[in-house]
Write a structure and sequence with these properties.
The chain is mainly α. It contains three helices and no strands. One of its GO terms (biological process) is mitochondrial respiratory chain complex IV assembly.
């Protein structure tokens, strides 16, 4: 009776995580945005709901520098901070 297992029948292909793990900012391209966000958190007893604009700016910087996958900001929870499309603001204010 053989107790050896045959692992050769399957091959493992590593793939990056879908979300939640991002490359480090080795060149400090988004350091200023990160520092503003962290200062906001410290100044507001780490209540992140008060630092959403800084969080949005930081994530935009990371996406612009390919430090995370590009996602629509609406999907990241910032729909209320987005500018309306051109012409939409005019329609919203007319009776």
């Amino acid at each position: 009776m053989s107790t050896a297992m045959n692992f050769g029948s399957k091959t493992f292909k590593p793939r990056p995580p879908d979300k939640g793990s991002f490359p480090l900012d080795h060149f400090g391209e988004c350091k200023d945005f990160k520092e503003k966000f962290m200062k906001c958190l410290r100044d507001n007893s780490f209540d992140n709901s008060l630092c959403r604009l800084q969080s949005k700016d930081y994530l935009e910087c990371r996406m612009n520098h390919q430090l995370m996958a590009r996602e629509p900001l609406e999907k990241l929870g910032f729909k209320d901070l987005m500018d309306p499309p051109p012409g939409q603001a005019d329609r919203d204010t007319k009776p």
